Amino acid sequence: MARTPDSLTNVYKTRIGREVRDGGGLKPDVEVDWGQANRLIYNLVRDNWIFDYANRYYAQHPSLPPVGEFVITDSIFNDFKNFIDADKLKYDKVCEEMLKSLREAAQLEGYMNDSVSAEFDNLQKMLTHNLQSDLDLKRPEIEEYLGDEIVSRYYYEPGRVQQSLKTDKGLKRAIEILDDPAEYRKLLSAPAAPEKTAKK
Hints:
Elements: E1 11-13, E2 19-21, H1 39-46, H2 49-60, H3 74-83, H4 94-108, H5 114-127, H6 131-137, H7 139-165, H8 169-178, H9 181-188
Antiparallel strand pairs: 1-2
Helix pairs in contact: 2-7, 4-5
């Protein structure tokens, strides 16, 4: 989404003098880093691996601890990893695709020789994906989706929401601010007035 330049927006002020601009919605006082989307997790969600595993887990376990006590244990996560059929899970391997394109470009532009080809081969070995390693690397993010899905089978949508709040970065940051009165007051205070230059 394109950002509207400040020169094309109107400036308004709140009761205490905080500046608010139109054109593009409100800018948050505090921005939270939500991380970057990952192709592996995208495919796990899109192709229903997490959804289907949660169904199987529910069929095999008649009860679940309360939402506040439930966690994805090593046993559950390893069971999920074993549930995935590596031959059926097709996820975009960005590094491998980019390396393939770079190799083709080097060939097309005349840079390819035995030495360059050998370097490409070495790089390809270093960047080859291993599903089990990729799953372990992305475990924290996978656990969020997996926990939400499993809990929702037992406690429905209210349970899913409660489970998701346990790892919600926005909520965590908000609590940190509310627990710090000085930071809270600073965020909501009016901007300091610029100092006036004395006339000569």
